[in-house]
């Protein structure tokens, strides 16, 4: 069959689809330089934030005909903005540090994304568009970081009318991903340095093979899936896998992050709590958090209206852990939607064959109902 493999940039994929595209560069308070992508529209502003080891490409990869959410929103006239967190392929730069030479560039976790990247991105969008309010969509870590940001600053509820979380991740006590196997080593710096690196996240061949053997025990897994760290971490839903798109997906994933960003979830498996990253010493914790111990994040302090979309086969967002979000944020839950497909997993929200039917259409309907209420 015809293969669709390519590694085009987000900008080019938007232009290829016949839409106008913009690239905006912003600098965070701690000097990381991030790129935002935009499909300008006359309608309301909506901001889409990717998940773990991903990039803005995730919202356009499926293309305009197969359910790329950015295109579905653009069709309806929304002003669509796409974020990129520090360390990914579009946000690999800094005022002074060089990501290829300075390990210090990579000394961040999703705490920093919530403290610096997300507020800077959203504030930039509001000031650039002159709008007072926006809609937000976060996939995976894009939901984690919003929950942290809003729990620490309640004024976001005035600026974000509705935050929708696909595969929301806060607590990971029940994580079914092979990542959980790393939890005994979450504080073992030498082991981590050898097998994950202390800079940009990359598994050693040994660890890739080990995790793949745990994840890929079934013969039904395609070889290209088994070799890709993203599927090894997030799981795989064979029936919803768009095989013609797979070569392109694996070209774009993993899109780059720091080892610590991944490790923060692994630490949480151990701690059974929603907490900041433990840098291993009081001195380092002070530098990152301003406290000797990592802070606890309090979901009960979240006050934005939220909508949850989740699947029953999500290795990173297990129903038992999702229930904690539901309970702790109960006063602000606008919609709690389980995807009506048995086996729906973490990446299906982006790439499933039937993503339009099971996610995009219910999501777009909810947005329009929300605005007519």
| Major beta-sheet overview | 9 strands, mixed
Number of strands: 9
Structural class: alpha/beta
* Total helical elements: 15
> What is the alpha-carbon Rg in Å?
19 Å
Which range best describes the helical content: under 10%, 10-25%, 25-40%, 40-55%, 55-70% or over 70%? 25-40%
Low-confidence runs of at least 5 consecutive residues:
none
- Strand fraction equals 5-15%
Spatial gap, N to C terminus: 47 Å
User: What do the pLDDT scores average to?
Assistant: 92
Q: Element order, helices and strands?
A: HEEEHEEHEHHEHHHHHHHEHEHH
* General shape: globular
Oligomer: single chain
Structure description:
The protein is an alpha/beta fold. It has helices spanning 10-16, 69-75, 110-129, 141-152, 156-159, 189-195, 205-215, 223-226, 229-234, 246-252, 259-271, 282-289, 319-328, 348-351, 355-372; strands at residues 22-27, 32-39, 45-49, 79-82, 93-94, 134-139, 160-166, 306-310, 333-338.
């Amino acid at each position: 069959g015809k293969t669709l493999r390519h590694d085009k940039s987000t900008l080019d994929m938007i232009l290829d689809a016949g839409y106008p595209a913009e690239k905006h560069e912003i600098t965070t308070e701690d000097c990381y330089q991030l790129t935002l992508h935009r499909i300008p529209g006359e309608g309301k502003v909506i901001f889409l934030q990717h998940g773990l080891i991903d990039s803005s490409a995730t919202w356009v990869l499926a293309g305009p005909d197969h359910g790329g959410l950015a295109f579905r929103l653009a069709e309806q006239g929304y002003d669509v903005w796409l974020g990129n967190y520090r360390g990914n392929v579009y946000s690999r730069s800094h005022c002074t540090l060089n990501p290829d030479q300075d390990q210090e560039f990579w000394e961040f976790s999703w705490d920093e994304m919530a403290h610096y990247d997300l507020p800077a991105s959203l504030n930039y969008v509001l000031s650039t568009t002159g709008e007072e309010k926006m809609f937000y969509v976060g996939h995976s870590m894009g939901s984690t970081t919003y929950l942290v940001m809003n729990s620490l600053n309640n004024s976001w509820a005035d600026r974000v009318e509705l935050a929708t979380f696909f595969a929301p991740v806060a607590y990971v006590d029940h994580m079914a991903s092979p990542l959980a196997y790393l939890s005994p080593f979450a504080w073992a710096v030498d082991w981590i340095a050898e097998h994950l690196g202390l800079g940009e996240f990359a598994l050693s061949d040994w660890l890739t093979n080990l995790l793949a053997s745990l994840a890929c025990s079934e013969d039904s897994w395609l070889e290209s899936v088994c070799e890709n760290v993203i599927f090894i971490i997030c799981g795989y839903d064979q029936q919803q896998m768009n095989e013609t798109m797979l070569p392109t997906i694996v070209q774009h994933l993993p899109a780059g992050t720091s080892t610590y960003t991944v490790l923060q979830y692994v630490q949480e498996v151990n701690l059974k709590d929603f907490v900041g990253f433990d840098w291993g010493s009081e001195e380092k914790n002070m530098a990152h958090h301003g406290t000797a111990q990592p802070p606890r994040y309090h979901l009960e302090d979240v006050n934005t209206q939220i909508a949850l979309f989740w699947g029953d086969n999500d290795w990173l967002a297990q129903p038992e852990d999702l229930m904690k979000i539901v309970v702790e944020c109960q006063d602000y839950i606008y919609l709690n939607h389980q995807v009506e497909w048995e086996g729906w997993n973490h990446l299906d929200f982006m790439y499933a064959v039937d993503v339009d039917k099971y996610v995009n259409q219910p999501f777009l309907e909810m947005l329009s109902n929300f605005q007519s209420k």
